[in-house]
Amino acid sequence: MTSSTVPSPAETGPSFREAFTPKLVTVLREGYGLANLRADAMAGLTVAIVALPLSMAIAIASGATPAQGLYTAIFGGFLVSALGGSRFQIGGPAGAFIVLVAATVQAHGMDGLILATMLSGLMLAAIGFLQLGTYIKFIPYPVTVGFTAGIAVIIFASQIKELLGLSLSAPEPGPLLEKLPALWSDLPTADPATMLLAGATILVILGLKRWKPNWPGMLIAVAGTALVTTFFDLPVATIASKFGGVPSSIPLPSLPEIDAAKIQAVLPNAVAFALLGSIESLLSAVVADGMTGRRHRSNCELVAQGAANIVSGLFSGICVTGTIARTATNVRAGAHGPLSGMMHALFLLGFVLLAAQLAGYIPLASLAGVLALVAWNMVEKHAFANLIRASRGDAAVLLATFLLTIFRDLTEAIIVGFALGSVLFIHRMSKTTAIETDRPFVAEDAADDAEGGRHPYEEERENDPDIVIYRISGVFFFGAAASIGSVLDRIADTYRALVIDFSAVPFLDSTAANTIEVLAHKAERKGVAVYLTGTTEESRHDLVAQGLQPPLVRYEANIGAAVRDARASRRMP
User: Fold this and answer.
1) Of all helices (H) and strands (E), which one includes residue 435?
2) TM segments (predicted)?
3) Within 13 A of 438's CA, how many CA atoms are on the CB side?
C-alpha cells in the first residue's frame, strides 16, 4: 500500500501573491489598534531625529545638496516601508553609497546621477519580480565585511578636509593615494574653529551614547554646534554659506535628460547601485529579522527598493537603500510595523516644510564629525579580526575585497571577492568528497549481505577477483570530479564487473555524470559490466540525461543486489 503526502507551504515556497504582499498589508490584516499607532509614531519620531542630520551629511559627502538627502529619506523612505517585505526596514540615503554616488556625480553630473538612480530602481524591481533575491544572499561574509570596511576608510578620508577646515590649493583628488598627499601638503591651512566644532560633535555623540544612550546624540551635537557657531559668529562653513540653505518646499516630479548615449554612459553606475543596494537592503532586513525573530520577504523588499529609487529620482533624490543603523534604531524604539518607517518620512517632510531654514545654521564640520563616526561604526572590527585569524582563504578574500574597494573600484572588489570566495568554497567542498574501494568475498553466502559480501567475522576469506566496488561519499561535483575520476579510471582488465555506489552522495552535477559516462564507455570496450547503486531519483535523472542507461550501465538498489547480478551473469554460458 502506498501513500502520498501533500507538500507543506515551507517545502513548496510561498505563492507569487504571498511573496509580493507588502508587510504593511500583513500588519493591518493582523489588526492594528491605537496602541500600535502610538508605538509606531514614537519609533518614527526617534528614527527621524537620527535620520535628519545623517541624510544631509551623506548627501553632502556624496556631492549632492543636503536637500536632496532629505528628499531621498522622505520619498524613498516612505515607499520602502509602504511597499517593502520587512516590517521594520528604514530606507534612505546610506553611507555605503557615498563613494559610488560621488564618482557618478563627478563623471556624469547630477542629471547622470538621477538617471542612474532611476535605472537602478528598474533593475532592482526586475530582480525582485524574477525572484532572484535569494541569490543576492550568497555573497560571502568576508566580502561584505571587506567592502564595508573599505567604504568606511574612503568615507573617513573624504571628510578630512571638512574635519580640519583645510583650504586646498587645488581641487581635492578622488583616489586615496592622490588625496592623502594633497591634504598633507595643505595641512598648514587647518582652521582651529572648524577642528574644535568637529571634535566637539564627536565627543558629544560618544558621551551621550555612553551616559545617556536614549538621548538623540546626533541631533543634540549638530544643534549644539549650530548654536555655538551662530552665537559666537564663528567663521566656518555652514549649510547656508555653501548651499544657500535648505528649501522649505518639495520639488515637483521631473525626469532628467534621457537619451541612448546617456543611458549607455551611466549604465555601469546603475548596475553598481542595484548590486550594492540589493546587498545592503537585504542585509539590513536580515539584521532586523535577527533582532525581532520575524522573517522578511526578500523579493518583495527588492521591488519596494526599486520603486523607492525611481520615485526618489523623480523628486531629485539620490540612491535609496535599507539602512542598518536606522533600521536597528527603529526596532529598539519599539516599532510595531511599517507605519513607523512611513511616519519617519512624514516627520522629515514636516521639518522641511516648517523648519528648513534652521538647517542653514548647521556647520559642515559637525556633519563631517557625524560621518566620521558613521565610518568608524561601519567597520565590523571584531568580525574583521576574526576573519584574519580564521584561515588563509578567508583572510585572502577579506583583504582582496578591502584593498580593491579602497584603491580600485567597489564593483570590481565585490566581483573579485565573490570569485575568490567561490573558488575557496569549491576547494573546501572538494575535500569533503571521498572514494573508497572494496571487493566482495568469493563465498556465495557472502552475497546475501546488503553491503555486497563484507562479513565482520570472516576477514580471512578470499576476495572475489572479478568484481570491484567503489563507494563515493560527499557531494560529487566538478570540483571533485578530477580526483574521483582518476581513481575510477584504474580499471584492470581482470575485473569483470564494476560497482559504483552513490548511496552517500547527496548531489551530483553534470561534470560528475560525464565522468561516470566516460568511465562506462571505457569499461564497455574492456568488457566490464558497470553497476550504479544507491542513486536517488534526482541523481539518476542527471545520470540518464548524460547517456548512462542500459545496456551501458545497470541500476540496482544496493551493492548486494549488484554483486548478485554480476555473479549470476558470470555463471551464464
Assistant:
1) strand 434-438
2) 41-61, 67-83, 113-132, 139-160, 193-211, 218-240, 270-290, 302-325, 345-376, 397-426, 468-488
3) 17
Residue 475 burial by Cβ neighbours in a 10 Å radius (0-12, 13-18, 19+): middle
In this structure, the strands spanning 434-438 and 467-473 are antiparallel
> The pTM is what?
0.76
* Alpha-carbon gap, residue 483 to 431, rounded angstroms: 10
Grid cell, residue 543, equals: 545520470
Residue 166, CA distances (Å) to 24, 160, 175, 179 in order: 47, 8, 18, 13
Handedness of CA 547, 553, 555, 559 (dihedral sign): negative
Q: Strand 467-473 vs strand 497-504: parallel, antiparallel, or unpaired?
A: parallel
Please classify residue 327 by burial: count the beta carbons closer than 10 Å to its beta carbon, then call 0-12 exposed, 13-18 middle and 19+ buried. buried
Instruction: Please say whether the beta carbons of 398 and 384 come within 8 A.
Output: yes
Q: Please name the amino acid found at residue 178.
A: E
Share of the chain above pLDDT 70, in %: 92
- Identify the CA nearest to 533 among candidates 518, 514, 555: 555
N-to-C CA span, the chain: 39
CB-CB contact of 276 with 136 (8 Å): no
What's the pLDDT at 450? 45
Measure the CA–CA gap between 143 and 151, rounded to whole angstroms. 12
Structural domain spans, the chain: 34-424, 433-571
d(CA 88, CA 337) in angstroms, rounded, equals 6
The rounded Cα 363 to chain-centroid distance in angstroms is 35
Mention every residue, 6+ apart, whose C-beta is less than 8 A from residue 145.
380, 383, 384, 387, 398, 401
Cα separation, 341 vs 81, whole angstroms: 5
The three-point CA angle 73-78-84 to 5° equals 115
Residue 524: band (very low, low, confident or very high) from pLDDT cuts 50, 70, 90: confident
264 exposed, middle or buried (CB, 10 Å; 0-12, 13-18, 19+)? exposed
Grid coordinates of 215: 538621548
Q: Answer whether 88's CB lies under 8 Å from 292's CB.
A: yes
CA 369 to each of CA 190, 241, 333, 423, 548: distance values in angstroms, whole numbers, following the listed order:
15, 18, 24, 40, 67
In a 10 Å sphere around its CB, with 0-12 CB exposed, 13-18 middle and 19+ buried, how is residue 111 labelled?
A: middle
Q: Mention the CATH class of domain 433-571.
A: alpha beta
Q: Quick one: which of 143, 132, 137 has its CA closest to 418? A: 143
CA–CA separation, 295 vs 333, rounded Å? 19
CA pair distance 312, 76, nearest whole angstrom: 5
CB within 8 A of 356, min separation 6: which ones? 67, 245, 246, 247, 248
From residue 470, alpha-carbon distances to 448, 456, 500, 530, 555 in Å are 18, 19, 5, 11, 14
Question: What value does the mean pLDDT take over residues 101-120?
Answer: 94
